[in-house]
């Protein structure tokens, strides 16, 4: 019983240990400025990872999220720049934001549709769409960058840099989505259906769950999350490049697994994903704040932390 | 006509096409020479500019000398480039212009091409063995670091504390950083820390945020590259630490050069390390067949400091980089 509790709290324990390590190693680690920086920049991956939690819990996988984020961001920036002369900066921004959600949702629908109706393995579908979308953004930008018009930058800036009652806007969006996601996963029918499909699709089908529809919905949800994440990403630097979102899919999947969601599906928890995202963000932050290891070894250090974080919660499945 | 985003938008046509290795159409008339070009694909800013200037130069060369045929291949990774070289050799090229993604793994395939009598032009990065290339056109990487170092010496004559962002871990990055450190020796300019930012704006933003948290006093930042400099700039602005801060990137991105021309408060200089270095490589190689000019040897292009006064010379508004 105690062991089970410890296993469930595994990622949280990892987070606490990281906080201790960070505060011992760097005097500025615990400053509110630093912690807000880490939280704010983690929001982009975090929002994507919340979508990924649902996809993975339903025994799916989406490798295309990084490329999707780049393509959605690129298309939205082009659309906003094109609308600017007729609509003015504010309306263009609003329209661009809605378009980002639409593009993301549409891309997710394509992924989900191919998995559900095309009966192709999710790994292959999203590997394919990842390549397609990454090529498209490289082609659209000619390998350079797609820049947001300066008039739009001033209007869009608060989306990343703004605060409400001292809390940065991206953190607020991330928090609301995380709380909403946790409720959907644990309290609502949709979450239970996703879990049921992930643990056994046959049984779920016999229990009158519309498996295809629920599965498709997880991919659309993932696409919408990517769209939402780009809304925060675009105003940060005001430019999209072919290297935007590179390897975000692995970061998102890593965060989900560190958080205790089963990669084989059937068990998911959104709060765990939030902890996973914070662990990844804090490790990178601590490495930058200290000269603890040679920068050549940063990747090794991150790898060790990920493995330990997952080891801590492996006890759960052994019990 | 090859389908690119530019002419697609210009003609208003609709449709999708992948920018795969493009083969330029063979004209009807007699060809006297076939020149293969193997360069990295446009995966980040600098290579995007490289592709732009390569296509531009090939077009102008082909217009001037219709008897020349060019075959352009691009690849995103080393193994793909090896395959491209082998495919070009199989197409009976007379000359090969190559910008190797990595020197070591490409040395053997290029040497095999050389053994079949193909004229070799190496660009930017040399090959791991001497005497393979007939013509070499490169940038001056030690000078790149030296110019950056001298810039900080002149900006901080009484010394100061700077942070450095390295690029992607490669030989080029090592050469630049070594030269940079040597110039700063004994100048009173102290390097607080160096981290890899991979010449990437997002990574540079995060590294810079953490540097600003970690060090209460930073007088200067060398971001190593203009993409990274723009990321660092956003972090500096967010923290409102522009006052007395010196920021330098490098390699001559058009957006940054425009900022210098317009008198930006934070970035007032750049180091030229141009993707245009492919131009002389293609032109000199083409001349060999077009006008029979037997040129061999090494061209090393300078990496001068770009200031407001000379910025216009280095400004390509149409280039993606």
Automatic annotation (TrEMBL), chain A:
It is found in: Cell membrane. It comes from the Bacteria. InterPro entries: ABC_transp_permease. The chain crosses the membrane at residues 35-56, 63-84, 90-110, 122-140, 160-184, 216-234, 246-263, 270-287, 293-312. It is a multi-pass membrane protein. GO terms for molecular function: transmembrane transporter activity. GO terms for cellular component: plasma membrane. Pfam families: BPD_transp_2. Keywords: Cell membrane, Membrane, Transmembrane, Transmembrane helix. CDD domains: TM_PBP1_transp_AraH_like (cd06579). This is ABC transporter permease.
From TrEMBL, chain B:
Residues 1-28 form the signal peptide. The keyword Protease does not apply. Gene3D superfamilies: 3.40.50.2300. GO terms for cellular component: cell envelope. It comes from the Bacteria. Residues 35-264 form the Periplasmic binding protein domain. Keywords: Signal. One of its GO terms (molecular function) is carbohydrate binding. InterPro entries: Peripla_BP_I (IPR028082), SBP_2_dom (IPR025997), TAT_signal (IPR006311). The keyword Signal applies. It is found in: Cell envelope. PANTHER family: D-ALLOSE-BINDING PERIPLASMIC PROTEIN-RELATED (PTHR46847). Belongs to the bacterial solute-binding protein 2 family. This is Substrate-binding domain-containing protein.
